[in-house]
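User: Quick sanity check before I run a bigger batch. Here is a single chain. Can you write out its predicted 3D structure?
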Amino acid sequence: MTGLDTKARFADPDAAYCMIIEAHRGLTEDESADLNAALVLILANQLGDMAALREALALARATVAPNHKP
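Assistant: Done. Predicted structure follows.
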């Protein structure tokens, strides 16, 4: 896997993080999970590249569950 650009691309990464956190403010845990799922699907569609999506999913999974194989 070498196609993803994993270096920071936002001019202000802290502002981007705050924007994501703020979108969750006031939501229940279930609503927050639904927001995350919707955001993932929207951004995956924006990406529009199955190989890049596969690589991104593997990278994300490895960050949260490094000892689990898919």
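Residues 1 and 55 are 6 Å apart (CA to CA).

User: Great, the batch can go ahead then.
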